Amino acid sequence: MSEKTIAGVQVNVSEEGYLEDMNQWNEDIAKEIATEIGIELTDKHFEVLNYLRTKTEAGESLSIRSVGKSGVTDVKGLYKLFPKGPLKFSSKIAGIPKPTSCI
């Protein structure tokens, strides 16, 4: 674990850059992480991010398939929003731990 300043806030991150404490997350942090990855966030992105945060807070495990069945977006839409690693990058931007289903 190390400390990093994101959007002017000092946060604890894992070796892979995931927030250690999801309560440190805010939309400005999400935007800065997304920019680092090369993604410009839209309202649809935030719908997915908020869904991921809600499910994580409820203790549910996440997978691309479960997000695709959420009604927020389908699998194809998730790949379109977060190319090159839909669950990996969406989780990082959402400020939640890396899902166990991600490599």
Describe this structure in words.
It is a single chain. β1 (2-6) and β2 (9-13) form a beta hairpin. The radius of gyration is 13 Å and the shape is globular. The longest helix is centred in the middle third of the chain and has 15 residues, at 43-57. It has helices at 27-37, 43-57, 64-68, 75-81, 86-94; strands at 2-6, 9-13. With 103 residues, it is mainly alpha-helical. The protein contains five helices and two strands. A two-stranded antiparallel ribbon has the order 1-2. The chain has one domain (2-94). Helices cover 46% and strands 10% of the residues. α1 (27-37) runs antiparallel to α5 (86-94) and α2 crosses α5 (86-94).
- Compressed to H and E, one letter per element, the order equals EEHHHHH
**Structural classification:** mainly alpha
Largest sheet strand order: 1-2
Q: Which segments are poorly predicted (pLDDT under 50) over 5 or more consecutive residues?
A: none
Can you tell me the number of structural domains? 1
Query: What fraction strand?
Result: 5-15%
Number of helices: 5
Describe the secondary-structure layout:
Elements: E1 2-6, E2 9-13, H1 27-37, H2 43-57, H3 64-68, H4 75-81, H5 86-94
Antiparallel strand pairs: 1-2
Summary, kept brief:
The chain has 103 residues and is mainly alpha-helical. The protein contains five helices and two strands. The chain has helices at 27-37, 43-57, 64-68, 75-81, 86-94, and strands spanning 2-6, 9-13.
